[in-house]
Design a protein that fits this description.
mainly beta, about 180 residues, Jelly Rolls
Amino acid sequence: MTPLSIQPLTREAFAPFGEVIMLEGAKHYPINAGTTERFHALAGVDAAEQGGQPIISLFRGQPRSLPLPITVMERHPLGSQAFIPVTQTADDEYLVVVAPAGEFDAGRMQAFLARGFQGVSYARGVWHHPLIALYKVSDFLIVDRIGPGNNCDEIALDGHLTLTAQACIAARNDRL
């Protein structure tokens, strides 16, 4: 098995795969007579392909154990898909594994350690691993597409690339 290196989730590092959804560095301004702060347009929603519409769902992820061999990746060719944690704190973490859109290339896979206040929006066609909650049951608000057409492709992998606790620790130390 080959450990996949994991890096801290930042807007810049994740940009080739989509958008990071977080308040830090976001455009914001007061509304409702100053009683509310609006953090504006944190991510776009790409859902209109072939007559699709955006929907909001909730996923409840069971915690995964490490090491975790990567045996499947998926993509949504007709729309973006956003994951926004709703039950996590800043100290909670989850993992994001991605590869660029197009023909799948395991050599271009990247892994990110996300904090509980960070969401991600995968761009249309970006390969990603299904939800990887760590440590505890975790709820995520999902914004994605419903409509005609096949919007989920999966590819089976041999599991030689693995996510490890040591790589998570290294990513945590990199962000400090």
